[in-house]
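Write out the bound-state structure for 3-methyl-2-oxobutanoic acid.
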Amino acid sequence: MNIASKQSKAFTINDFKIRKKNGIPISVITCFDYAFARILEGTDIDVILVGDSLGNVFAGYETTIPVTIDQMIYHSAIVKRGALSKLVVIDMPFMSYHVSIEDALRNAGRMIKETGVGAVKLEGGRDFKDIIRALTKASIPVMGHLGLTPQSVHKLGGYSIQGREEEQRKMLIEDAMILEEAGACSIVLEKIPLSLSKEISERLSIPTIGIGAGRFCDGQVLVINDLLGITKEFNPKFVKKYADLHTVSRNAFDSYDREVKERSFPSEEYSYK
Ligand code: KIV
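---
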């Protein structure tokens, strides 16, 4: 397939609403590096998210809170270089959009300009409506993120399911509608009950992208390391492992180590005459 025909098929920001209208699900996956971005470039996955979950799975932090703007820019530029035809969304890290509208605009502008990605994502509800409105007005598309918002782990007291109590449920439905009204192009719903994501999805004309939010969302997102089964220790109910790269990698490392120590690698086949 040549680049022109591939690009004409590429998912753009307009496709969020078109897919929602036509009831066609949207597939989103996180990515943090060039090698996987190259693989994703050849797939039909619709959107790549450079999530600040890279703080956990790439950098080994306990939370996403330490992730910086520079780190997000570094990874997003790499991913975009590997997946030129894809819509890439960059997560705005903790405290990059909390101080003021001006600060959020400056940070988001830098993140877009220095990476070439097509949209930003930020966590939170009604408190961020003016920021979403200002970014949208500045031609920076915004993906919202409600439910379990990992940057608020200290406020939430952990990573438990959100929206189980009636009052919180009502707040989340209202927040979703406020985000749509403010101009969000789509909303990630993380770790909320099925019935709640169903109700939110039915009320919005922009798509919901679920992670731990069940099948009624308009799209789904998974973290690449979880989907590929790279991390052995993280096994929440909502993660389906489509591969076991942990075992594949471990076996490869062990075989290499053994062959080096047995002097069976490099054999003739891997040596220059
Ligand atoms: O940071 C991230 O990877 C995310 C997804 C879990 C939606 O926000």
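---
The chain is about 40% helix and 15% strand.
The pocket of 3-methyl-2-oxobutanoic acid is lined by residues 30, 49, 51-53, 91, 145, 188, 211, 221, 223 (CB under 6 Å).
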